[in-house]
Amino acid sequence: MAQSPDERMTGDFVVAPGHRDLDERPSLSHEVIAAYAADAARSVPGILALHAPLWKEISARVRDSRGSGVIVKDSRPGAVDLDIHVKVAWGVTIPELAVAVEDAVRQRVTALLDIELDTVTLYVDEISGPGEVSQSKEG
Fold first, then answer.
1. I need a labelling partner for 58 at 20 to 30 A (CA). Which of 19, 52, 65, 74 fits?
2. pLDDT tens sequence across 55-74
3. What whole-number percentage of the chain has pLDDT above 70?
4. 52's torsion region: left (phi>0), alpha (psi -120 to 50) or beta?
5. How far apart are CA 135 and CA 139, in angstroms?
6. What is the spatial distance between Cα 114 and Cα 109, in angstroms, rounded to a whole number?
7. 15 falls within a domain
8. 51: domain CATH number?
9. Is residue 18, in this structure, part of any structural domain at all?
10. How far apart are CA 112 and CA 5, in angstroms?
11. What confidence tier does 36 reach under pLDDT thresholds 50, 70, 90?
12. Which of 81, 82, 78, 84 is nearest to 114 (CA)?
């Protein structure tokens, strides 16, 4: 069977049967999946910001768009892996934070987008210093 244009597009993820023909499936771009995952990660106490990896940051500037700090990778048909790059608050317990982020992301993405997540990997790229945390609480 020939692939539909949606299935051939890079960065698209087929999620549900289409309304015209059961063989046609609408798709979600990796950017949409990343946006929902980023919102869920930001909602977890202790996450101060999402960081785009350097290569993605440079690419985003060239394209004049913001990197979200979430990388979506196709893992198998019907599922994706997520890499989430973050800046965390001083004093948080990182293993507990990782579990909380994974739970929040899985809950939001699977409920709102109806897709499967295989792995959710948290990368702590930066930890705020003790002075940064007290300044942000005062201001």
1. 74
2. 555 554 444 334 479 999 99
3. 65
4. beta
5. 6
6. 7
7. no
8. 3.30.70.1350
9. no
10. 24
11. very high
12. 78
50-53: Cβ within 8 A, 24+ apart: 50/84, 50/85, 50/86, 50/87, 51/85, 51/86, 51/87, 51/125, 51/126, 52/85, 53/85, 53/125
Instruction: Using alpha carbons, list the distances in angstroms from residue 123 to 1, 2, 73.
Output: 39, 38, 15
How many Cα atoms within 13 Å fall on the side-chain side of residue 50?
A: 24
Given a cut of 50, whether residue 51 has pLDDT beyond it is yes
Range of the domain at 76: 30-138
Residues 76, 79: Cα–Cα separation, whole Å? 5
pLDDT at residue 63, rounded to an integer: 42
Q: Measured in Å, how far apart are the chain's first and last C-alpha atoms?
A: 59
Judge contact between 37 and 109, C-beta under 8 A. yes
- Range 78-100 average pLDDT: 95
Tokens 């020939």: give the residue.
Answer: 2
What are the tokens at 80? 């994706």
